[in-house]
């Protein structure tokens, strides 16, 4: 006895469904590109010293009155395990420590990371996510502080106006522990 065979026929997608998917496709691609961005570049300079250690770096956002609002990045020696590990030396970034560091629980997912080698390092933050999504219109500063064992410390401040109406840029040049630091705002 033979069982009946069912032939599968290829059914075509209705034309209206294809048009809907086709119409949404550019939106799916362009959606992320339309979001604003805060892009930064932080340069760690090459120093001619006998005992070189990578600097610890903290980057945070402050209001015009100097109130620390949010950590943007904290680079320290996350591999040290003895005692407090690398976190013990975070206090050497004095301004960051006093303003926001001592209240910070490390490791911060997406914020804290290992120290960086010599060179330029890029950071990017979407404007539609914290901490930028909740900012009230006004003037702010992005602060970058670096401290190095058997070295010095340095603080640079980059003023920004929020929200950006047009593309804007702020630059600062370090003198010892930091090189060129820039922030670009794209609405």
Report on the architecture of this protein:
With 187 residues, this protein is mainly beta. The chain contains two helices and nine strands. The strands form two sheets. A five-stranded mixed β-sheet has the order 4-3-2-6-7. A four-stranded antiparallel β-sheet has the order 5-1-9-8, with no helix packed on it. Strand 8 and strand 9 form a beta hairpin. The longest helix is centred in the first third of the chain and has 20 residues, at 15-34. It is globular, with a radius of gyration of 24 Å. Mean pLDDT is 83; it is low at 6-13 and 16-33.
The number of E-state strands comes to: 9
Task: Walk across the major sheet and give the strand order.
Answer: 4-3-2-6-7
List segments where confidence is low: pLDDT < 50 over at least 5 consecutive residues.
Answer: 6-13, 16-33
The SS-based structural class is mainly beta
Order of helices and strands, N to C?
HEEEHEEEEEE
Shape verdict? globular
Computed over alpha carbons, the radius of gyration is: 24 Å
Number of DSSP helical runs: 2
The helix content, as a percent range, equals 10-25%
**Beta-strand content:** 35-45%
Mean pLDDT: 83
